[in-house]
Amino acid sequence: MNDTTVTITPSRVAGTARAPPSKSYTHRAILAAGYAEQTTVRDALWSADTQATARAVDLFGGNVERQDSTLEIEGFSGRPGVPADVIDCDNSGTTMRLVTAAAALADGTSVLTGDESLRSRPQGPLLEAVADLGGEALSTRGNGQAPLVVTGPLSGGTVSIPGDVSSQYITALLMAGAVTDEGLVIELETALKSAPYVDITLEVLEAFGVEARKTDTGFSVEGGQTYDPADGEYAVPGDFSSISYPLAAGAIAGDGGVRIEGAHPSAQGDTAIVDIVDRMGATVDWDRSGGTIDVQAKTLEGIEVSVEDTPDLLPTIATLGAVADGDTHITNAEHVRYKETDRVSAMAEELGKLGVETTEEQDSLTVHGDESVLEGATVEGRGDHRIIMALALAGLVAEGETTIRGAEHVDVSFPGFFEMLAELGVSVERDA
Q1: Which residues, at least 6 apart from 61, have a Cβ–Cβ distance to it below 8 Å?
Q2: What does the annotation say about its assembly with partners (predicted)?
Q3: pLDDT tens-digit profile of 406-427?
């Protein structure tokens, strides 16, 4: 990957931006459409991972046709056929988990594999769950890892599974359980890890007309249900971690207003950024039914905000705090130190190069807006897409040019980020 340097010149922003669609929702929507008869999935993320899920739907007897970000999916109506070939999940762990449970519904044997990385990831608890429900599910190497051989069909029942290995096991079983004869009761043996991702699953199921629910000890889903979204359509919501950047850009430099499209309400924790920007004083109007957010810059005031459930928002909030009056106190932040980089220290140090005063503690970061004078400088992206994008926002209002090294890493989550800024009126120079 080339070391790309991007230079931002102070700019005001206006216009319309669209954030990338959510990968988590896209996976679930493609498979849910597979379980259905005919579905139009709009605003889908078409990436290597989601293409793997689409290939599985094809192999189960469905058909996925793509036109830009719209997918026309002919499903297999709740009963996957036996695949005519091995299902290659590539590098997508989500695909492998979701598809393993789907394969257990087929009246025959399916074989699943993936790349070297995916073949090292744990699948054992899900294989045991399939076996406990009357199917057969084997790891060819006997180590709970792919390649997997799965034979169905399942009729449903009650199954016990750990919740702290992967929430995707729960997602896979809930999605498959809805079309079994008996339905499925899932008892959790341990506390559920990454619970918001199961909330996403429940939300997608509801959109497709499938009822599943939390219980005191786990989850349950009635059998014999039909996947049938309203009007035969489903729109994938935008990724709210990514939405935080154009939203913050509008809040600090959007005198003429910025509209963000693809902002449909969802179970994503990072929807909290809308409330945060509003609390800091920007003018924010979220049309939930239309999936648009309009934001206009106003004088911002520092606030206290916990990032316990929203660690990816810390860099964005820190930049907002650098522009705001008073102190912005970001709390419950220790886990943010264990991301692609230590984002607490990274934001303190890189914003410091731009003239921002901060106080860093183990589990918090306080940004002293009143003591800060934003001045352009050269900063390091630290191989972290979120640090890069947050620093680019600071460059909108810093005095002079802000140069960010290693800017190519935005491709991890928002490949068109700098193009989006340019379309909003930002002066962006790129040097590979």
Answers
A1: 76, 80, 81
A2: Monomer.
A3: 999 888 778 899 999 999 999 9
pLDDT of 1 over the 60 cut = no
Phi and psi dihedrals of 424, rounded to 5? -85, 0
pLDDT in tens, 87-97: 999 988 899 99
Burial of 81 (0-12, 13-18, 19+ CB in 10 A): middle
Percent of the chain with pLDDT over 90: 82
What are the residues whose beta carbons fall under 8 Å from the beta carbon of 194, sequence distance 6 or more? 166, 167
Identical topology for domains 5-20+238-431 and 23-221? yes
Whole-prediction pTM: 0.74
Binding residues for phosphoenolpyruvate: 23, 93, 121, 168, 343, 386
* pLDDT exceeds cutoff 80 at 338: no
For residue 229, whether the previous peptide bond is cis, meaning omega lies within 30 degrees of 0, is: no
Enumerate the known binding-site residues: 23-24, 28, 93, 121, 166-168, 194, 312, 339, 343, 386
The CATH class of the 23-221 domain is alpha beta
221 has a pLDDT exceeding 50: yes
- Please give the annotated binding residues for 3-phosphoshikimate, written as ranges: 23-24, 28, 166-168, 194, 312, 339
pLDDT confidence of residue 89: 95
Positions marked active-site: 312
**In terms of CATH, what superfamily is 5-20+238-431?**
Enolpyruvate transferase domain (3.65.10.10)
Whether omega for the bond prior to residue 122 falls within 30 degrees of 0, making it cis, is no
Please say whether the dihedral angle defined by the alpha carbons of residues 19, 25, 31 and 34, taken in this order, is positive or negative. negative
DSSP string, 372-420: ---B--EEE-TT-HHHHHHHHHHHTTSBS-EEEETGGGGGGT-TTHHHH
Terminal-residue alpha carbon distance, the chain = 10
Which of 56, 153, 155 is CA-nearest to residue 107? 153
